[in-house]
Amino acid sequence: MFADIVVVGGGASGMAAAIGAKEAAPAAEVVITERLDRVGKKILATGNGRCNLGNRDVSAAHYHGSFRSMSSILSRFPAEGLFRPLGVLCTADEQGRMYPRSNAAATVLNALRMRLAELGIKEVCNFDLSTYLRKGDLFELSSDDGQKISCRKIIIAAGGYAAPQYGTDGAVMRMLRDKGYRIEKICPAVAPLRVSPDSVKGLKGVRVKGLVQAYSDGRLIAGEEGEIQFTENSISGICAFNMARYCQEYEGRLEIRLDLAPDMTYDELKKYVHEQRTKRARLELNDLLTGAFAKNLAVYLVKNMIGRPMTDKIATITDTEADKLCGSVKELRFTITGSTPWKSAQVTAGGVHKCCVGEDLGSLLEKGVYLCGELLDMDGDCGGFNLQWAWASGLTAGRNCGASLKGADR
Ligand SMILES: Cc1cc2nc3c(=O)[nH]c(=O)nc-3n(C[C@H](O)[C@H](O)[C@H](O)COP(=O)(O)OP(=O)(O)OC[C@H]3O[C@@H](n4cnc5c(N)ncnc54)[C@H](O)[C@@H]3O)c2cc1C
């Protein structure tokens, strides 16, 4: 099989790259190769099935990695600019997070696939790239089961290590490292924070607005406010997800401190607890905080911080116990028990370093190779920033690759 341009990886950035390439070089034969049995499987899982496809904020502030210096790509290709012409209407919430108006990730994938079909871009699924070699003016791509495709240009959009259940296990990144690309240290990002099941016993399913702060050796590393959620062995929610990138760097030394009432000062909380002691004196300790927090969380706090039978009366709470309780509401501490497994991470931090890639996202090591998406050393916060980078970097690589084909070397 021969194609002018082969895009490796049929994810968000690969589909955007293919569209960009074909629009820039309409006569070119553009093919997407995908190791899974269909393209875009991960897109269907994004945003809990709603696909948070971008964010109104396209500034570098929400990004990490060596490609931050190329964040102008994001403003050149905002997500709506790709999707509106495909007929996808978008809405944004108060944090600027953009979703398709249908609230269905399938809308996004269908629109992309319809555009691929309209442009005559072929999808070659079950093609698991194992390597590629330059042969004269062409590249020869080989799959793990012996299939071969020749092409003039390659766009590598094979993602990172996160969520291997959607086809991304880092194999292509390892292949690029063997070819001499500098791979910036990778680690899971946008993921739940693992804690010991005992430390969150009774909290499963609890959701509370609060402040999450990451500390190591007593030093504040990062913090963010938002909705905190508990599972049987983790703390999650967008604000917790954004702390995951520190788990590997500070492994064994990362502590999470939660302020479960950022809207109240310590003194206001204390006043509230003292009021309960007089006004609800005959009720059991079980009910001490139920006017301020959901029942499970209220019981957890009193039980763990006071450590007395919950049937004791509220009137019996001492000043020292009240202080301890208020302290824990303002700063509930959890030790992070380990790095997040790739399976539960949404994003890969790290990847191909900026020093290997030009402003057009063309490789500086191999002429005719372009790279885009999560494969590159650029990860965004949770909130649509990662898909935004995938579309924008995909379109950039695709258009430049297509334009180069039209030029002298075609
Ligand atoms: C559960 C989940 C929810 C998420 N939700 C959001 C969200 O709401 N908003 C947001 O901004 N981001 C979200 N993300 C992150 C976002 O999906 C990714 O950052 C984005 O998809 C990266 O795009 P990509 O094209 O670079 O890589 P991917 O989308 O990972 O695509 C890479 C493709 O390459 C294929 N591939 C890999 N190796 C080979 C090979 N050797 N040969 C051929 N094909 C190969 C893979 O099968 C895959 O289809 C979420 C991620 C997950 C896992």
Description:
The protein is of the alpha+beta class and 410 residues long. Helix content is 29%, strand content 25%. The chain is built from twelve helices and 20 strands. Strands 1, 2, 7, 8, 9, 10 and 19 form a seven-stranded mixed beta sheet that branches. α9 crosses α11 (319-330) and α10 (295-306) crosses α11. The two termini are 18 Å apart. Flavin-adenine dinucleotide is lined by residues 8-14, 33-36, 42, 45-47, 51-52, 127-129, 157-159, 162-163, 166-168, 171-172, 346-347, 373-375, 384-387, 390.
Give the full name of the CATH homologous superfamily of the largest domain: FAD/NAD(P)-binding domain
What is the strand content?
25-35%
Report the biggest beta sheet as strand number plus sense, adding barrel if it closes.
7 strands, mixed
Structural class: alpha+beta
Tally the structural domains: 2
Sequence stretches where pLDDT stays below 50 over 5 or more residues? none
Individual helix count: 12
- Please tell me how large the radius of gyration is: 25 Å
Multimeric status of the protein: single chain
Approximate helicity band: 25-40%
